[in-house]
Design goal:
By secondary structure, the protein is α+β, with helices and mostly antiparallel strands. It has a domain at 26-109 and 162-245. The chain is built from 7 helices and 13 strands.
Length: 246
């Protein structure tokens, strides 16, 4: 089974098997994200993320029925594969951490490919889990604690926003606005780095949209999202500076 980035395991939570499981938030680390050079973003996060990270798009999965693979937005965290410039000793160094990272070690996943039902899962290899330290997930009677209830609300909100994000990306992609982007940078040590594999909105194509399409994009919020994306690309130079400092 292939797990999402960061996850080493995805064990469905069970009221019997995990009755005594606790989450030690003091032991929270993101060391599994140390080699993650980009992280998934929901569109609701663009406002915060665009101030700090380049926001790009990438095709995920495989093409089906002659259609291209769906598009998803990412926050770029490093300039090379396996590089995350925002993690030091397992701790997040940025001002804003994407929700994808904040939900770890939990997530929601389909246990059966034929079912739409989602189960709360946990990466049980995470060192912050124990039966002695931290917040309990279940009471002695097997009922979800307040901590677990708030966790489920957060995970459900993440999934809802992910669906909204996919719809937004589908509209942008269907309008033919995305193109492959390339970024080149010269490091202070003389090394040259080329960033490829991402997609960005083409400004000329955006300006050439019909007036009714522009109005529709304005009213459904996509125009603002695309502008935040375009402005965020200036943060590539911030990544270069951060890498040189490191």
């Amino acid at each position: 089974m292939k797990f999402p980035p960061m996850y080493r395991s995805m064990m469905p939570l069970d009221t019997v098997q995990h009755r005594d499981l606790r989450v030690d938030q003091g032991a929270a680390t993101l060391e599994n994200a140390a080699d993650l050079n980009a992280a998934f973003l929901n569109v609701v996060e663009f406002v915060d993320a665009c101030r700090e990270y380049p926001i790009v798009f990438v095709r995920t999965g495989e093409a089906k029925d002659g259609k291209p693979a769906p598009v998803a937005p990412l926050a770029v965290l490093g300039l090379t594969q396996g590089e995350n410039l925002f993690i030091k000793n397992g701790q997040w160094q940025g001002d804003y951490a994407p929700a994808y990272l904040r939900r770890y070690p939990f997530c929601m996943a389909r246990l059966d490919a034929q079912s739409d039902n989602l189960a709360v899962c946990v990466d049980d290899t995470w060192k912050g889990l124990s039966t002695t330290q931290g917040e309990r997930l279940f009471s002695e009677q097997g009922e979800a604690t307040e901590f677990a209830q708030n966790l489920v609300k957060f995970l459900e909100a993440f999934e809802t926003e992910s669906e909204r994000t996919q719809q937004a990306c589908n509209e942008i992609d269907a309008a033919g606005l995305l193109e492959e982007m390339r970024f080149e940078a010269q490091m202070s040590d003389g090394a040259k780095i080329e960033v490829t594999g991402f997609l960005a909105v083409n400004h000329e194509k955006l300006m050439a949209l019909a007036d009714d399409k522009v109005l529709a994009f304005h009213r459904n919020g996509l125009l603002a999202l695309m502008e935040m994306h375009r402005v965020s690309l200036g943060n590539m130079s911030r990544l270069v500076a951060k890498r040189n400092q490191a």
